[in-house]
């Protein structure tokens, strides 16, 4: 959640949602990346669509890259008990 808080700072400075920031960032990763967002709510769907019009500047892309650089999140996906449930 500490990392998400840093993303909220970037999104807040642009007055956009976290989902729009995430999708805009993904769209800046190259033509071979195609985000597939899900939404069960028309308001969120429209926000997702608007991400194609959200152009991040070089600094915003670098800040977002740095927050979730490889290895930034190192915890197990599940608790030890949960890991037993997936045979790991």
TrEMBL record:
**UniProtKB keywords:** Oxidoreductase
Gene Ontology MF annotations? oxidoreductase activity
Residues in domain NADP-dependent oxidoreductase? 3-67
Q: Which Gene3D superfamilies match?
A: NADP-dependent oxidoreductase domain
Q: Name one GO cellular component term.
A: cytoplasm
Q: Name one Pfam family in it.
A: Aldo_ket_red
Q: What's the domain of life for this entry?
A: Bacteria
Q: What is this protein called in UniProt?
A: NADP-dependent oxidoreductase domain-containing protein
Q: Which source organism does the UniProt entry give? A: Desulfosarcina alkanivorans
Could you read off the lineage of the organism from its UniProt record? Bacteria, Pseudomonadati, Thermodesulfobacteriota, Desulfobacteria, Desulfobacterales
